[in-house]
Design goal:
Helices cover about 70% and strands about 5% of the residues. It is mainly alpha-helical and about 140 residues long. The chain has one domain. Strand 1 and strand 2 form a beta hairpin. The longest helix has about 90 residues.
Length: about 140
């Protein structure tokens, strides 16, 4: 047993407001399909040729209704699967973009580090030259 509601479901399928999909459920009860009565034999009677034709007609209508609902649910399932795949792809793209941003920052820092290393080495070399020049002049004067 259980409770049946035709209110339906609403799925949030995107990051933004309004990106949702709703699905409603048609009633598949025998009474909604036109094939119920106090008993099955009263709803679908085959006691005469006319009654049998009427029963076949009711059953055909019920099958058509059920098939229509099934195709609606199948289409919704395909739509949700497509949306799932799109969201998965969007997530992967977002992750790749974040990775590129982080990698770009790392490359910039490596360049800055190399530049600073070169400046330090140049400064040390200039100090060495500056310190060696006075001692060279003094040695010449002696």
């Amino acid at each position: 047993s259980g409770n049946f509601s035709t209110a339906g479901l609403r799925f949030q399928v995107g990051a933004n407001e309004g990106q949702s999909v709703s699905i409603t459920f048609g009633s598949m009860r025998a009474s909604a399909l036109g094939i119920s009565g106090a008993s099955v034999s009263q709803a679908i009677s085959i006691t005469s040729a006319g009654a049998a034709e009427s029963a076949i007609s009711k059953i055909d209508e019920a099958i058509e209704t059920v098939s229509g609902e099934r195709s609606k649910y199948g289409a919704m399932q395909n739509r949700l699967e497509h949306t799932t795949n799109n969201l998965r792809t969007a997530g992967e793209n977002l992750q790749a973009a974040e990775s590129r941003i982080r990698d770009a920052d790392m490359a910039k820092e490596v360049i800055n580090f190399s530049k600073n290393q070169i400046l330090i080495q140049s400064g040390v070399a200039m100090l060495s030259q500056a310190n060696s020049s006075p001692s060279s002049v003094l040695s010449l004067l002696q």
